[in-house]
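Sorry to interrupt, but I need a hand with the structure work. Could you write out one complete protein record for me, on any chain you like? Could you add the entry underneath, on a fresh line?
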Amino acid sequence: MSNGQAILYLEDGAVFAGQSAGAPGETVGEVVFNTSMTGYLEVLTDPSYHGQLVAMTYPLQGNYGVNPADVESRRPWAAGFIAREICDEPSNWQSRKSLREYLIENGIVAISGIDTRALTSRIRRFGSMLGVISSECFDADTLKKRIQDYGKTRRNFVAEVAASEPYTIGDGDIHVAVLDLGIKGSILANLVSRGVRATVLPWNATVGQITDLRPDGLFLSNGPGDPASLTGTVDTVKSLIGRLPICGICLGHQIIGLALGMETYKLKFGHHGGNHPVKDLARDRVFITSQNHNYALKVGDIPDVEITHVSMNDRTVEGLRHLRHPIVSVQYHPEAAPGPMDSGYIFDQFIGMIRQNVMPSC
């Protein structure tokens, strides 16, 4: 293959040839597809995509360029980017550079010019799988070995994306301890806008470190990876049940479920996009939500745990609450970014639990 070209090789042997659209080099990760029509910058900078090669199903990416106000964290986290076409002449007054320039500056290996519809159909049929994007090596046997070696590694993706030191944001009258499992900036913005002073703690903060802050509530963020591997965090949350109002989003929702005795499992190809219908069972309404997760909670008969939201696509658990303790969580992203902002009421529900002062000080 000539200079400027790239290849996407999947672990099942499928090959997609295209053009290099980002930094030169090679990257390995789990290939997933995202159905959002906009929001490529939010997707790239969402820590939950750490270790993943993200294929956007909408064919044109980069048409409105890169606006720093859209970033969700301190850097891009997606392991690679896959698109049908990348626009090099964006049209938006807020744009500061092209998507291609952004990918190159941040060392993100990307490929364009491939049939993303065929790729998406393959993932839907066979499930999420590992893959490698390369603009340097085009030998199938070598790329297959790269994937096999990567599959043998065991990485703690949460530890790689989460804050290493505590910090505080906001100056409201409600003090919330936030466990950073890979938090998005828009989640913190939603909390702060509702009068919260958030002390953000590393993912492995202990029960003592949390209670020493004397917070009014505990919030668990989104993040990457398998929730079942975070046994220490699950035990921490389990110890705080009944001592603090607790709320979780995405990975945080799964951690809460595990702490309450539920189990998780891996979805065939995950939920990634800004157009997923979810039914709020109490309101008897369907909301269109933003989602990004590969794992889900198993439905089970857990005492005092009520399922509050379900996916209209596959009936997976999208929300829960505890009947005796002030605990709520949702699988989807109520902060959107990208996506519709129909379901931000979960933040109000959490703040309402705290303001009711139903819990004694821990």
